[in-house]
Predict the 3D structure of the following.
Amino acid sequence: MATTDGEPGPCPACGAPILWAVDPNGRHVPIDLEPSPGGTLSLSQTWEGKPRVTKPSSKLAFGRSNLHTPHRVTCSNLAKLKGFL
Ligand SMILES: [Zn+2]
């Protein structure tokens, strides 16, 4: 299955709203669309305007409320999701 960078959509495994982003290693990772209090990933954009995630240090992340959680943490059908990663 092809993934479309930057387009929010349902998780292919559980249907939750997610966004595919690129991590610092160039891999495509699904993240929860909405930020959450326990989030660990900072969402930004590449120079191409595609979503990119970075993991700020705990010092930089402190007090921020706009961090996203990797969807593999919250997916209710992780076994199936792994087939898409
Ligand atoms: Zn899911």
